[in-house]
Design brief:
By secondary structure, the chain is an all-alpha fold.
Amino acid sequence: MAWAASPMAEGVLALLDHDDFDARSRAPPTLSLVRVTLTLMSGLFLVLGVVFATLAAVLHVFIFIMESLLWTKPSTWKRFGLASQSDAETLRPMALNQGFYNLFLALGVFIGFALLPQASLATAGLMLVLFCTASMLAASVVLVISQPKLLRAAVTQGLFPLLAVVCLLILFIGAATTTA
């Protein structure tokens, strides 16, 4: 997936002056610079994607705790706009279920991270992280469409997944275009 030694880098080389040839490396120094730059860019997007995905997953674990473990506490159900303890008890099964959805999405991100160090599974790990963060983002879009008054909650829930998805898509698109 690395951008180094890619067709894009080779194409850039074709446009460069070849008078500056380094006999030891058998490559012009400018090609090395291009390779290093592209590798650093892919590394940057990977790190940013992992950081934003981690923040998204941690937030979703926190939401799980509120919805599934602390739901009947007044400080929690008031945060969700409920008016009474009775309302919280009525909605408890739904909140429990929804909390576990959030937990499973977060676990998917963490499992994806666990796959990253294994070279043969790294792409699968990134795809799992991308799928889970895209699902988090989609849930935030559904939230704001179904209840526009919850725009702030939707932005809170969806900002980190959005940033993770953007970074990971740039990483994948960059890798795909340079290896095609």
